[in-house]
Amino acid sequence: MRFKRITAMFLAFLLVLGTVPVSAEEDGTSSDEKNEEEKGSYSEKHEVVYATLDPAGEQQEMYVVNNFNIEDQGTIIDHGPYTNVQNLTDLTAVEQKDERIEITAKEEEFYYQGTLEGKPLPWDINVSYQLDGETMHPEELVGKDGHLQIKIDTAKNENAEEIFFNNYLMQITLQLDSAVYENIDAPEGTVANAGKNRQVTFSVMPEKEGSFTLSADVTDLEMAGIEFAAIPSSMSIDAPEAGGMKNDMNSLSDATAEINRGVGELQNGIAELNDGAASLYEGSEQYKSGIQGLSKQSSELVESSASIKKSLQQMSGSVESGSGEMNLSDFAKMEDGLRQIAGGLEETGESLTNLKNQYSKAHQALSKSIDAIPDYKISEEDFKALHESGADKEVVDKLAQTYKTSRTAKETYANTQESFNAIGPALDKSAGSLNEMSGRLHAMADQVGNSLDNMDLGESMEQLQQGLQALSSSYNDFHEGLTGYTSGVDEVADSYRGLHSGIAGLTDGTTELKNGAADLHNGTSELASSTSDLPGQMETEIDQIVEEYDKSDFEPVSFVSSKNEKVGSVQFVIKTESLKKDEQEQEEQEEEEEKNFWDRFLDLFR
User: Fold this and answer.
1) Cα 297 to the chain's mean position, in Å?
2) What residue stretch is flagged as signal peptide (predicted)?
3) What is the greatest pairwise CA distance in the chain?
4) Are the C-beta atoms of residues 535 and 250 closer than 8 Å to each other?
5) pLDDT per residue as tens digits for the range 61-80
6) Per DSSP, what are the bridge partners of residue 413?
7) Spatial distance between the Cα atoms of 49 and 80, rounded to a whole number of angstroms
8) Where do the structural domains in the chain lie, given as residue ranges?
9) CB of 157 within 8 A of CB of 123?
10) d(Cα 321, Cα 215) in Å, to the nearest integer?
11) Regarding beta strands 197-204 and 168-177, do their DSSP bridges make them parallel or antiparallel, or are they unpaired?
């Protein structure tokens, strides 16, 4: 610390010595002659702006170091609203009148410093601190332990010249003592070793605002000032060689177009499948209604047949016993009843034949639609590669779902095809049985009618008796067959309900599949359209990025005054005040640490 005080006194002495005026008369030359003789020039000047901030980022002090590359030694003119100027090259006085600075350069390079007050920086900087989740003033953190979080925000200062914000790259650096800071986490920064310290660096691009967070576990907290260095982003950015990428993009464009064509074909196939399923459902609905109607009529058929059977038995018994109770009108009624039952069976047979024809058409449409579904297989790896290609994730997911559903429909149909194939022959057999029974009933009715027409009760009673016995016996066989048939119809009606429900579910599924395929095709069409010119889009994006970040055409201007010319560069070095323990307390601690064991022992007796 004594060395620091001596240095400060020596610098003050030099400043006083440098301000001693030397008149033109003492030099033996008039002022005008001297100015004319000593007029100098420079090739370019450089400005380094130094600014200090408080730990929260509030601007405190600012000064500028100006550097001139001298071509001709002599008097040169600079401009700036400085409150104080100081020669950093030699002891020659720097003259200032308002914002006009007059300096005498005698070396190849000349430096002078000017203090600025009230000049805003191009960036608004804000630094906030939290310890263990509690927001605290920076000064309150010194010496504390806990989990520290620092948040640094930079934004454009609307009250400053925007050219620096738009063209300068800012680097933010924190030097953290490894003995104090552990478990350092800076998600958007770079953490590196710098001796015993850990150096954390953040970068802010031109025209961008920055927001960064750093966290660490601290013990006996102290922290060096945060440094903000801003320099022109004047490096030239060349567009990358995109030939290979363009070829890849062409391949991707072709692939998405091919996918769109394939999905279009899939949509058409699914539409045919849905139409076939709808036709199948309509035919199944008609068959279900017919078989259920036939099942409901079965009991009536059986009751009517039983009544006819009973009548035949009674008539046959009356003729055989000769009781005379037989009424010929009963024969006429029996004939009419047989013909009515035969007609009902014929209608039912025709209905089954029509139903079978409709079912065959629906089955053929369904088979054609199912066969139209492509049989190729797409693996999970294929879908994963499509995801990674940059295709729309939602569209790819729909494609995968549609593919899986169509495969399920195809496999389900293959497993149930035997059931579908068995329905047609069963309908044929049922219609044939009905027609056969109808024919037998018509034959019986004809036999009864012929008997009535040719009967002579006085001479042919024995013949009538034999005919009735034969008819009754034949009808018994028919009635038993009819009873068995109606029982089978009831079983078919009950079992077909489940099959019809499955067909209804298939129809609903194919409808959803059709709607999903339409949405999918819309998505792949949009994807194919948006990726049709991927190489051109990529090249445009690259050009925009290069244009945004290539600042090679930036021409520096003075931060201090627009009157300054030949500005070669302007740089900013900004630093917050450090968070340190009290300086006197620090000195006493250092002195205490410098004492050896013997000194500390003697202090006990002093």
Assistant:
1) 61
2) 1-24
3) 184
4) yes
5) 999 999 999 999 999 999 99
6) none
7) 13
8) 244-540
9) yes
10) 119
11) antiparallel
